[in-house]
Design goal:
By secondary structure, this protein is an alpha+beta fold. It has a domain of 99 residues. It is built from 7 helices and 14 strands. The strands form 3 sheets. Strands 7, 8, 9, 10, 11, 12, 13 and 14 form an 8-stranded mixed beta sheet that branches. Strands 3-4-5-6 form a 4-stranded antiparallel beta sheet. Strand 8 and strand 9 form a beta hairpin. It is elongated and about 60 Å long. The chain starts with 40 loop residues before the first strand and ends in a 5-residue tail after the last helix. The N terminus and C terminus are likely disordered. It comes from Astyanax mexicanus (Blind cave fish). This is Actin related protein 2/3 complex inhibitor. InterPro entries: Acyl_CoA_acyltransferase, FAM169.
């Protein structure tokens, strides 16, 4: 997406919003009327132009309702508020895809989200890029807005933010209603932009999550794990045998009755049917695709009954061994 000549366009070597200082969320608020001071226009890929007028400007809430009410000023296409084309930051309008860029060579790989502008980029990736601009046809999953203090990492590559993952930390609240807290750290959302998929980036993020929790005997991935995410887990666990006993599919808050070992599910083929989508399609606990099958369920018993007796015994022993080892009991 390109801006029209009367908008200042970031040139090669210039700094982007994430490279500019922004110490507080209050700095995101525009000066009164400044964003309307010039009659500017944006050129859309279709060739149409969007004028910067009050009718084409709206506010995007950055966080969930329980957080402070911080927002962004957004320019959208006429008569279609979902088609966001620019964001007002640092006293100017920026095309969406330029906000995701950086001129800093040190901003590379998976980096912890800490600054105000990094929170803005996390929001744009989850709500605008995946939510609207790069959304596949027929996709039925959406990311909820991430809380203000959500633990997250953004994946930077070739000077752009190309993906992210978020974690529900052990001890953090599951929601604002029940007062329950997570019993273990849980990988909650994963996203890789469509242009950068099929390059192993989803696998890179899963490995980073697992390696960042070396002292935890059990770690989780939020239920339900999608078919594409199961594919990533399979690739990872095939080469990381030491992780097989500690990685679980987890329903909040994650007590033992709400966990299922991922590797055991893969071996028993309890995962969803692999779709034709990329193996790095988004993962989120927000979409409900299937029911969690527990070891005592009818489906689990039928799968065991259809196996050979030796294999059935092996899987049963495997499950019992995993349960007892997690409690520190030798079998």
């Amino acid at each position: 997406m390109e801006s029209s000549p009367n908008l200042s366009v970031t040139q090669k070597g210039s700094r982007y919003p994430v490279d500019l200082p922004c110490q507080d969320y209050d700095e995101l608020k525009p000066d009164s009327g400044k964003y309307l001071s010039d009659m500017q226009t944006f050129n859309l890929p279709s060739g149409n132009k969007v004028k910067v007028t009050q009718e084409n400007i709206g506010q995007l809430n950055l966080f969930v309702d329980d957080d402070p009410p911080h927002s962004l000023l957004a320019l959208h296409a006429p008569a279609d508020e979902t088609q966001v084309v620019a964001i007002y930051l640092h006293r100017k309008w920026w095309p969406i895809y330029e906000v995701l860029k950086t001129s800093s060579k040190s901003r590379c790989g998976l980096l912890l989200v800490e600054s105000v502008m990094e929170r803005v980029i996390l929001f744009l990736l989850s709500q605008i890029i995946f939510g609207i601009l790069e959304r596949p046809l027929g996709e039925n999953m959406y990311f909820s807005t991430h809380p203000m203090r959500e633990y997250a990492k953004i994946l930077w590559q070739d000077g752009e933010a190309v993906g992210f993952y978020t974690i529900k930390k052990k001890g953090s609240l599951c929601d604002g209603c029940t007062g329950q807290s997570y019993h273990l750290p849980v990988l909650d959302t994963v996203y890789v932009r469509s242009r950068w998929r099929k390059n192993g980036l989803g696998l890179q993020m899963l490995q980073d999550f697992c390696s960042s929790m070396p002292k935890e005997s059990a770690i989780g991935i939020s239920y339900p794990i999608s078919a594409s995410m199961f594919g990533v887990c399979k690739k990872y666990l095939e080469t990381h045998q030491d992780q097989r006993e500690r990685l679980y599919e987890v329903e909040a808050p994650g007590d033992w009755s709400q966990r299922r070992n991922v590797w055991l599910s893969i071996r028993l083929q309890l995962h969803p049917t692999q779709s034709a989508s990329s193996d790095e399609s988004p993962h989120s606990s927000q979409v409900m695709e299937r029911k969690l099958i527990r070891p005592e369920s009818k489906v689990f018993r039928e799968l065991e009954d259809n196996s050979s007796s030796s294999r059935r015994l092996s899987f049963r022993n495997c499950w019992v061994s995993l349960i007892y080892r997690s409690w520190g009991v030798s079998v």
